[in-house]
Amino acid sequence: MAKPITAFTCTACGASHRKWAGRCEACGAWNTIIEEAPLSQGPGRGLGTLKGKPVPLSGLATQEAPPPRVQSGIAELDRVLGGGLVPGSAILVGGDPGIGKSTLLLQAAAAFARTGQQAIYISGEEASAQVRMRAQRLGLGDAPVRLGAETALRDILTTLDAERPDVAIIDSIQTLWSDQIEAAPGSVSQVRTTAHELVTFAKRRGTAVILVGHVTKEGQIAGPRVVEHMVDTVLYFEGERGHQFRILRAHKNRFGPADEIGVFEMTGGGLSEVANPSALFLSERGEPSPGSTVFAGIEGTRPVLTEVQALVAPSTLASPRRTVVGLDSGRISTILAVLEARCAIPFAGLDVFLNVAGGMRVNEPAADLAIAAALLSAREDSALPADTVLFGEISLSGALRPVSQAENRLKEAQKLGFSRAILPAATKVEGVAGMRIDRISDLTGFVGETFGAG
Hints:
Blueprint: E1 7-10, E2 16-17, E3 33-36, H1 75-80, E4 90-95, H2 101-114, E5 119-123, H3 128-137, E6 145-149, H4 153-163, E7 167-171, H5 188-205, E8 208-213, H6 226-230, E9 233-238, E10 245-253, E11 261-267, E12 270-273, H7 277-281, E13 292-299, E14 302-314, E15 322-325, H8 329-343, E16 350-356, H9 368-380, E17 388-390, E18 393-394, E19 400-401, H10 406-415, E20 420-424, E21 436-440, H11 443-451
Parallel strand pairs: 4-8, 4-9, 5-6, 5-7, 7-8, 15-16, 17-20, 20-21
Antiparallel strand pairs: 1-2, 1-3, 9-10, 10-11, 11-12, 13-14, 14-16, 18-19
C-alpha cells in the first residue's frame, strides 16, 4: 500500500506547500502553515485511459435572458445584491462579532418568506430557542420561516434536499463539519469542503444559499480565500460599535456592481434601512467649524456625502501622532508629504487626527482634496463655508486630477442644499445649474485662494 501523502496548507490564503515552513511564500504570513491529510488519494498520477463525455460549447454571441431576481422588499439589501436575489446563487456574508449579521439575515429570511418564497434558517451557533427570542424581539414571530439548529453537513444537505427551499441561510460556515474529514470544525479542510458542498447544492437545486463567515482580527473573512472565489457574492457588514449606522458593502458580485453599499440604522426593533444616507451622515453637522469639510463621494452607483473632520494640535512627543479613523492612513501620509513638499506647509511637531463622521469608511482617491482642506482648515483655525463641498484627487506633483461621475456628486450635493463646489479644473460638468463651481488646477492654487498664504 502506498504511503499517504501529507499536505501542508496555509490557513491565511489556502496555498498548498510540499513541506512545512515558518512563512508562507504565497501571502507572506508567519506561522500559518499546518499539516493536513489530503481529501482523497487516487491510484496513480493521472486519470488513466478512461475518457469522459464531451462538454457542450457555445459561442460568445449566445442570446440568454438575464437571470431572474427575487426582491425581498428591503431596498438596501436588494440594492447591494444587484437588484434582488438570484436563484441558485451562493452568497458569503462577513462582519465583526456582534455587528448584526444574524439580525440582518433573520430579517432578510422573514422578508423573503413574506413574499411567498420558502426560507429555511439553519443556525449552527445558537439554539432554536435563542433564534425564536430574537425573532420575537424583532417582531418577526409570525413570519413563515422554517428554523433548524444543526452543524452536521450531511444532515443539513439531506434536509435541504427534502424541503427544496428557495432561500437557505447557514449561520455560520465555521461551525459546520463533514464526517468525511478528520478535522475540527472551522479548520481549513472543513471550511473548504462544507462550502464546496453547499455551493454545489445551490447550483444543482436552484436554491439561493447565504453563508455567514467569521472574520479575523484584521477584518478579513476567516478561512481559506478559496471560499470567496467559490461563491458568487461576498458581502461585508461594517460599522462601529459606538455608532448606530451599519453598512453592507459588496466586495464581489457576479450579478451586480461591486462596491455597492446599503446603509442601515441599528434600532431597538432591529435594523431599519436608510433611504438617504447623505442626509443621515450630515444630520448632526452644525455651524461651520475649523477642520470640518464635506466630501461628495460615490459608493458603487450611489452618491454619498460625508463629513471629514480634522484636528491639528502641537505635539509633545518626539514622533507626532497620526490617528486616522475611516480613511487610509497611507493616503493621509502622502497628502501630508505633498502639502509640505509642494505647498511649503509643514506638519512637523503637530499631532494630526482625522475622522469620517458617522462611522463611514472612505477609500476613494477623490477624497484627497476634502482631506487636504480639512487639514489646512484645522491648522489655520479657519472654517470653510457651510455650503461648500469638495472632491478631487491629489497627485504627487501637487496637481489636482479629475474624478468620475462629477455630475452625480454635484446633483446630490445640490439636493441637500449645498450651493458651492470646489473641484479639479479638468473635470467635465454639464447639466448642473444654479451651483457655483470653483475650478482649481493644483493644490498650491487651492491653498492660496482658500487660506491665503498659509
